[in-house]
Amino acid sequence: MLSCRFKGYKHELHKYYQTFNSHDEACEKPFNDVSAEDWELCCQEFASAKFKKSSEANTNNRGKAEINHCSGSKSFARYQRELEDNGESVGPIEFWKKTHYTEKGWKTPTTQQLYASFFLFYFFFIN
């Protein structure tokens, strides 16, 4: 849990860093409640070749995902528990729809195809 919060905070720092036109400009304006010394270390990290390589690889990998969900940073277990706490009891197929479908539609074509497959399987073999 703590590591997730730190990861989210580091992400916010990096987003702030990216709002500047240059590394030097970013270094001059520390993020809220971050000391100038600590901000300088963060800027050095964000400008490092290792960080840039890792960041680019992660961006590319996220783009390759065929299945994506819409429950944000919540784990599926936490989301399921929240549904139960609100009096909603859903089966696995409906839970899939709740975590992969929004008012804009399915997150990816693959998620829609899998939902249809789950539904058909249930209809013909379980029901």
Write a concise synopsis of the structure shown.
InterPro entries: Probable_transposase_24. The protein has seven helices and two strands.
Essential attributes:
127 residues; mainly alpha; 2 domains; two-stranded antiparallel ribbon; Probable_transposase_24
Distance between the termini: 39 Å
Radius of gyration: 21 Å
Strand content: under 5%
| Category from helices, strands and their pairing | mainly alpha
Low-confidence stretches: none
Task: Tell me roughly what share of residues is in helical segments.
Answer: 55-70%
Number of structural domains:
2
Mean pLDDT: 88
Could you say which overall geometry the principal axes of the C-alpha atoms support? elongated
Pfam family, one: Transposase_24
InterPro entries: Probable_transposase_24
Model description:
InterPro entries: Probable_transposase_24. The protein is mostly helical and 127 residues long. It has two domains: 2-63, no CATH class; 76-126, no CATH class. Helices cover 69% and strands 3% of the residues. The protein contains seven helices and two strands, in the order H-H-H-H-H-H-E-E-H. It has a two-stranded antiparallel ribbon with strand order 1-2.
